[in-house]
Structures are given as C-alpha cells and as structure tokens.
Amino acid sequence: MQSLLIQGKAKSDINIFIDLAKRLGLVSRVLSDEEMEEIGLLSAMEEGRKTKFVPRSEVRNILNSNLVNRKI
C-alpha cells in the first residue's frame, strides 16, 4: 500500500482532492493537527535511528517546520 499526503491552504482546494479520491475509489482522510505533529515526531525518530544521534535543535526544527507548514 502507498500513501500520499497533500497539504493545502484552502479547504475548497482540499475538497477537490477528496472528491477526486472518492471518484477513483481511493480512501482519503483529513488529518488533525495532532496527527500531523505525530508524523513530524515519527520522522525525526526514524532519522535518529539511522544516524544514532540527532541533535535536539534538528528535532526542534523539524517539528517547528511541520507546525508552520500545517497552518492553513
């Protein structure tokens, strides 16, 4: 299974993708702010597993960038 995450600035733009997904028989779902934060944290944790050490500042930057990007 593969997934696609799309962020938009306007709810009407997001609704276009939701409608398209329904027409194509795909499953779609709107993620909450908390779920987006969890994705950012998981991404930082997975990167930490690869390098064995991720500085706090880098984790903070990743989380902050996700917070900034998700504000619609």
Descriptive overview:
By secondary structure, the chain is mostly helical. The chain has 2 domains: 1-30, no CATH class; 32-72. 65% of the residues lie in helices and 0% in strands. It contains 3 helices and no strands. The chain has helices spanning 11-23, 33-51, 56-70. Helix 2 (33-51) packs antiparallel against helix 3. The longest helix has 19 residues, at 33-51. The chain is elongated and about 45 Å long. The model has no long low-confidence stretch (mean pLDDT 84).
Strand content: under 5%
Rg calc: 15 Å
Span from first to last CA? 28 Å
Unreliable segments of 5+ consecutive residues: none
- Count of domain modules: 2
Which overall shape is indicated by the principal axes computed on the Cα atoms? elongated
Give the biggest sheet.
none
Q: Helical percent range? A: 55-70%
List how many beta strands DSSP finds: 0
Number of helices: 3
Element-by-element helix/strand order:
HHH
Helix/strand-derived category reads: mainly alpha
Mean pLDDT: 84
